[in-house]
Amino acid sequence: MLEKLSAPPVRRQLIDVEAIMGIARRQWVVVALCATVGAMFGIAYVMTATPLYTAGTSVMIDRGDTSQVVAQLSTAGPAPGEEEAMIVSQIALLQSQAVIGAVVDKLDLTNDPEFVGTPSAVATVKNGIKSLISLTGLYSPKEAQADTAARRQAAIEQVGRGMTVARAGRSYVIGVAYTSPSPALSARVANAIGDAYLDDKLESRYEATRRAGSWLEGRIAELRQKALEADLAVQKFRAEHGLVSAGQTLMSDQQLTELNSALIVAQSETAQARAKHERIQKILDAGQSDAIVNDVLDSSISNDLRQKYLEAAKTEADISARLGTDHVQAVRLRGEMAEYRRQMFEELSRIAQSYQSELEVAQAREKSLQESVEKAMGVTFSANETQVQLRELEREADTYKNLYQNFLQKHQEALQQQSFPLTEARVITKATEPDRASHPKKLIMLLAFCFLGGAAGAGIGAFREFRDRFFRTGDQVRDVLDLEFIGTAPMIDESAGKVAGVQAGQSPRALRKSNVASNYVIDHPLSSFAETLRSAKIAADLTLAGKDCKIIGIVSTLPGEGKSTTAINFAELLASQGARTVLIDGDLRNPGATRAIGLHAEEGILEAILEKKPVGDLLLYNPQTKLAFLPAVIKRRVPHSAELIGSLAMRDILTSLSAEADYIIVDLPPLGAVVDARAAANRVDSFIYVVEWGKTARRAVRQTIGNEPQVRDKTLGVILNKVDHEKMKLYRTYGSSEYYYSRYSEYYQENK
Q1: Polysaccharide chain length determinant N-terminal domain: from which residue to which, for each copy (predicted)?
Q2: Distance CA 581, CA 630 (A)
Q3: Helical axes 97-107 vs 183-241, angle rounded to 10°
Q4: Is the link from the previous residue into 631 a cis peptide, with omega within 30 of 0?
Q5: Is 423:16 a contact under the CB 8 Å cutoff?
Q6: Distance spanning both ends of the chain, measured CA to CA
């Protein structure tokens, strides 16, 4: 089973290049003409414009100066975008009336003839009248002062219009330029602007420093008083709370420190005395009379007793060794030794008592110092609580003191800076007299005028394209009307050539054509018009294949679109191909076909309808093609033409003619003018719609055919009539039939 292939989707271009190129082809003449006119205006302007000269100076903003008192007084950091705002502010300052006014006053521009220019005759007369009035006393000083102020203001505005101020890239350099008809004046004004800007900066700095100094003086006096009051408050608080200081510390704190030191020493001495007492007490408890104690060694009594004891012991040992231990002398010596030992023990007891006394004294001293320390600590704790307030008062006093010293220093700096001529800007380039005019730039102005002219031409061309609401191509017919496009018919010059087949002395029932247009397909059988009518015939044959006689109506929207000419040529083409063809002029109000080929007829369709005359007696014939024509002879105004066209009599006429003809072509009235074509819709098998190329609005055709559904449903297609093929080339797009017209036009021969 074969699958159906779907057509690929059509991609819609965002920009229709073909349409833009088509517009350019159609409107290039208008654009070129407007550009030429613009170039002529540009040449005239360049030839007549007054040459202007521009001189420029450069000013650099110096951000390295940080010695300003006003800047030092500010504690805020640089805000985001401060640099950009600063440059913009300086540019605004250069353009301010203060700077420009200083330039006007310095150069006396209100009385400068180069700046003011030659006064006009009216101004001269006006100044003369003012002079005369001032001599008579009628011109008051106030009026003269007002006039001077007005002239000064006018000069300021003129300088402002002539100057330009711009920043050089992202740098701190600002360029100032002035343009005037005089190169010397331009240089003088540009330099004066830079000098006036620096003077204004210097004056503003001096004024700001002076104001800062005045403010500092008041602030210093206030801070001096505040510092004095804060210092007095500290001293008064000390006196009230007994906070006597010794250097950087209070007396109570110093006493506590000393007592702590003494207490530590006393505690150490007490521990030492306790250790000595405990040592000697252990010796006494053990009964050791020969124990080694420092004070025993230092005692002369103890040393003498020990010496005697040692000597007695030595002697006793010697006697006992020689004479025996029981010898009297040995016994006596042992008694002395016991006495010496007792005396030594007593001396050791006296030393122990002295140690006891020392221990008690040390303990008493330690206790006394402990009590003194505790008392001093209470005083210190109380003083510390009071010192919280004291420290707050001291901090406040120190703050006012520091502020006072700082502001006093800044005041001295401000006094020095008032007479120090230093600004944050400087002129880095002086203006010089230009040697060539800066305006007008001839080539640029000429190109600009050409561009403006071309732009105006493009606008006019766009407007013309917007206003072009007519049918130009077959694609427009298909898109707007949703009908088949049959073809085009060219514009025919009716005054050119002779009418073929029209000779004097012919039969009164022979067609007599009054112009070449009605015989065009006979004279040009291989023309594009003939090919279009052949396409219409094929469309009719395919659509009405089951009918023996095909009744085809030729209609249009408006009168004068060429439907009658199309109907005549279509009928002639059918007849020339051997088909039995009858042409009926169904326009009972404006019978164009009858005027074209049957003006000599005396009777026609009206007589057949109203008087029931035989149609065969009313027909006219073309002896060359055998075309039969039923004219419409209007002898009087017919108010009910629609009823006649749609009547039974008309049906009978068509029925009788259908029996003897293969094609019946009915030239019907325009749809937009009358309702006759609508009335004949039931009598006609199909329609061919004729639209005049470039004349009939698309909206009118769409609306008319939309209001006639019976006609629309039976319409075979649309023929664009009176086409100018030379102009139509401008509306071609790639892929359209018009695009390839030059290639297949070889198959057409407009001449026999």
Answers
A1: 15-107
A2: 11
A3: 130
A4: no
A5: no
A6: 54
Instruction: With H, G, I as helix, E, B as strand and everything else as coil, classify residue 243.
Output: coil
> Tens of pLDDT along 132-185?
555 555 555 666 678 888 888 998 999 999 889 998 888 889 999 999 888 888
Show the tokens assigned to 649. 């009599």
How many angstroms separate the CA atoms of 537 and 527, rounded? 15
In whole angstroms, give the CA distance from residue 332 to residue 320. 11
DSSP code string of 296-316:
HHH-HHHHHHHHHHHHHHHHH
Q: What is the pTM of this model?
A: 0.52
**Residue 620, beta-bridge partner list:** 629
Res 64: pLDDT:
53
Per DSSP, the residues of 599-627 read TT-S--HHHHHHS---GGGT-EE-TTT--
Torsion of CA 715, 719, 721, 723, to 10 degrees: 150
In contact, 705 and 671? CB cutoff 8 Å: yes
Tell me if residue 673 falls in helix, strand or coil: coil
Angle (CA) 114-116-121 rounded to 5° is 115
Q: Per-residue DSSP letters for 545-608? A: TT-SSEEEEEEESSTTSSHHHHHHHHHHHHHHTT--EEEEE--SSS-HHHHHHBTT-S--HHHH
431: helix, strand or coil: coil
